[in-house]
Design a protein that fits this description.
By secondary structure, the chain is of the alpha/beta class. The chain has 3 domains: 31 residues, no CATH class; 80 residues, Translation Initiation Factor IF3; 137 residues, Rossmann fold (3-Layer(aba) Sandwich), CATH 3.40.50.1970. Helices cover 44% and strands 19% of the residues. The protein contains 10 helices and 11 strands. The strands form 3 sheets. Strands 8-7-9-10-11 form a 5-stranded parallel beta sheet, sandwiched between helices. A 4-stranded mixed beta sheet has the order 3-4-6-5, with helices on both faces. Helix 6 links the parallel strand 7 and strand 8. Helix 1 runs antiparallel to helix 2 and helix 6 runs parallel beside helix 10.
């Protein structure tokens, strides 16, 4: 039974609230053969879409999860797609007659049936360098899947510190609710941005860097030890988590303004 059928049955007295609760609990999980259980009501319950971590999955399994998820929800994110799977997966998705949003230098895609309406909050997305763009784009796709408008500006790091001021001015004028900052090497941009604005900052240390503190370790340590308040940090290269947190903040702010 669909959710509206269950509710109508309770209203008409055909089933008890106890039975309805059981049916609704069952409805929230969709099993794909014997290898995946999909939380299809997550977006309704938490505002967070289903995300398929594709890096360690077989292509056929990813296809099955996508298909099952789209039967019950409007959108799904597929993150960290293997290079050899990317084009094949895009071709498969096109056969489903749905829309796809991709990100520059990113192996994450957003798949949706109906156009996503940006009725949530607004999130700013910044990168220190061009090498950080792929991770930032993962965050952008996550925010947009959660109905947030995004304002992006890339390659504005501390190596040319004057580049950051015009875009920060724009973000303040646009009244963004949260700013995501992706930075590798020493990760200094997140601290800098946090000192300049009264807006929550989500820092993403990226694995850009080499030598001592390589693979994002220096950027992570730098952001975690920042003396600037108002900065929180996710794991190395975790654009999905940063997008989820930022969109959650932005949507709650927007919800309170509307109410």
């Amino acid at each position: 039974m669909k959710i509206n059928e269950i509710l109508e049955s309770v209203k008409s007295g055909k089933i008890s609230t106890k039975d309805a609760k059981k049916l609704l609990t069952l409805y929230s999980i969709e099993e794909v053969e014997n290898f995946a259980k999909i939380d299809v009501n997550r977006s309704k319950r938490r505002g967070v879409p289903e995300v398929i971590f594709a890096e360690t999955k077989e292509l056929d399994d990813i296809k099955k999860i996508i298909k099952k998820t789209l039967e019950k929800t409007n959108s799904v994110l597929v993150s960290r797609i293997k290079k050899e799977h990317y084009k094949k997966l895009l071709l498969f998705v096109k056969t489903l007659k749905v829309k796809i949003s991709t990100g520059k230098n990113s192996s994450t895609i957003l798949i949706f049936k109906k156009p996503i309406k940006f009725h949530g909050g607004t999130v700013g997305v910044l990168t220190a360098g061009t090498s950080d763009i792929g991770v930032a784009e993962e965050s952008r796709l996550m925010c947009e899947a959660m109905n947030c408008k995004c304002i992006t500006s890339y390659d504005v790091g501390v190596a040319g510190i004057q580049r950051i001021f015009p875009i920060l001015k724009k973000m303040i004028e646009e009244d963004v609710d949260c700013i995501i900052v992706a930075a590798g090497m020493e990760g200094a941009l997140a601290t800098l941005v946090s000192t300049l604005v009264d807006i929550p900052i989500i820092g993403i240390p990226t694995s850009v860097g080499y030598g001592y503190g390589e693979k994002g370790i220096a950027a992570l340590a730098s952001m975690l030890q920042s003396c600037s308040l108002g900065l929180s940090v996710v794991n190395i290269d975790n654009g999905i988590a940063a997008g989820g947190i930022a969109a959650n903040i932005a949507n709650r702010v927007n919800k309170k303004i509307i109410s």
